[in-house]
Amino acid sequence: MAGSKKKSGLLLDLEATNGTAVTPTAAANAVAIRAKGLKIKSNVSTSTRDVITGVMGNDDKLPFSHTADLSFGVELAGSGTAGTAPAWGKIMQMGGFAETVVATSRVEYTPAASAFKSATIFAEQNGRLERYFYLMAALKLAFAVGEIASLEASAKGLVTSVAAGSIGTKTFTPWKRGLAVGPINTSKVSLGAVTYTAGVLAGGTTFDFKSYSLDCGQDVQILQLAARETVDIYDFKPKVELVVDLTPAQHAQFVTDMKAGTMLGLGFVHGTAAGQKIVVYHPRCVIADIEDVEEGPMLISKLILEPRDSVDGAGDWMRLANL
Fold this sequence. Notes:
This protein has 323 residues and is mainly beta.
């Protein structure tokens, strides 16, 4: 029987012990998911029996694993109070980021060195209640002029159950309204010798930009063993795509920087009021590609950047702060 996509819902909570399911509640753990990009799917892996029966047709299949794929997005909005973690902080943590809370000041997310956290999700869609656990996610951030800043997650994990049901009446109080990217809410992007100290960016040269997107590039894998399955993140391959307005001389200089392997810091601020500000910072990036792209009848520059640590081995290629 057909159902409305708008009746879908997610409850999400982090697991105290990876792979040990918790019980998220509609009152405390509801996620304000966006309609765009929502995918809730369980998968059964099977082994094929290649037994010859004397006739042609499909081979028999035997199940051996039940896993989940979830894709969903949320608005990347501040918590509303400086020093209070935003609602999407748990999603960052299930994507391999560490959360650092500086009371009354800011909350920062940086790549975790190890001990990545997993999550339990209860998903409601089309009249079904699907319970998943041991989920970890690959993450993407997007800031595009005219759109609301967003965080997207593509998660893999294991399945507890799939049945008809509902997660009940959801409470979205921790989720604040996002801000549209544009001149009212968003700063220019700084490139060059950019520094970050306690939520404040300094240095570099500022440029007007059209869009910034980050693919964190988490390599999430499920290891299937005879008596158990484990989920973990085995690598990060982050990539930034920045569409920016450059003069001919500036475009030419970035081509020179790309040829020389010059490292560039990158940072910008989205939001203007305390508790609503989101700061994006990369200490060093290498230019992997640059080209002209069409914006209607106009041409504008697109940079492909690969983030690097502030120094080799520091593990700090990204800092996302809410202040």
